[in-house]
Amino acid sequence: MLMRTDPFRELDRLAQRFTDLPAGTWSRPSALPMDAYREGEEYVIAFDAPGIDPAALEIDVERNMLTVKAERRPTAVGDSVQMELAERPHGVFTRQVMLADTLDVDRIDAQYEAGVLTLRIPIAERAKPRKITVGQRDERHQISG
Fold first, then answer.
1. 3-state secondary structure of 38
2. What value, to the nearest 5°, has the Cα angle with vertex 38 and ends 115 and 36?
3. pLDDT-based confidence at 21, cuts 50/70/90?
4. Cβ density class 92-126: b for 16+ within 10 Å, e for less
5. pLDDT per residue over 67-124, tens digit each?
6. How much is the pTM?
7. Would you identify the family this protein belongs to, as annotated (predicted)?
8. C-beta of residue 63 within 8 angstroms of C-beta of residue 5
9. Virtual torsion, Cα 20, 26, 27, 31, nearest 10 deg
10. Mean pLDDT computed over 47-73
11. Cβ within 8 Å of residue 61, ≥6 positions away
12. Is the dihedral of CA 27, 96, 16, 88 positive or negative?
């Protein structure tokens, strides 16, 4: 139902986890982890986005390319703030997913709950299995020999 667009993105995410690489920026965003599965007549994609304000989520579909962007800013900022420990990642996160033609991208439902952005995409009617009835030819139109 979908195709990964960047096979090295997971390697980048792992490298960032174990090194001191800077947080994602708009020009080089960090990976947004996801799960994808089919549930009945829908395709479900769940993105981990903890601590992100729903207003900071952007979801776009152009043709069959789904793009999800999110930005998490540091919560404690200001002249009087002295950061003692900062382990929670912040910055820009994104993920692009190529969706199959069998999905109805005009009816995507997006919900954000408990730090998880869940997209539900219905399977297109044209992609659902259907029965074809077999008819019989009318004998009156057959040529006798």
1. strand
2. 40
3. very low
4. bbbbebebeeebbbeebeeeeeeeebebbbbbeee
5. 999 988 877 778 888 878 777 778 889 999 999 989 999 999 999 999 999 999 999 8
6. 0.69
7. Belongs to the small heat shock protein (HSP20) family.
8. no
9. 60
10. 92
11. 67, 99, 105, 108
12. positive
Closest CA to 32 of 54, 55, 53, 57: 57
Q: Is 18 exposed, middle or buried (0-12, 13-18, 19+ CB in 10 A)?
A: exposed
Quote the Cα angle for 115-117-123, to 5°: 155
> Looking at the predicted structure, is the pLDDT value of residue 22 above 90?
no
Structure token digits, residue 17: 């986890």
- Return contacts of 18-25, CB within 8 angstroms, 24+ apart: 22/91, 23/89, 23/90, 23/91, 23/92, 24/89, 24/91, 24/92, 24/93, 24/94, 25/91, 25/92
Query: What is the residue whose two structure tokens read 């960090």?
Result: 30
- Which among 71, 69, 50 has a CA at the least distance from the CA of 114? 50
How many CB atoms are closer than 10 A to CB 61? 16
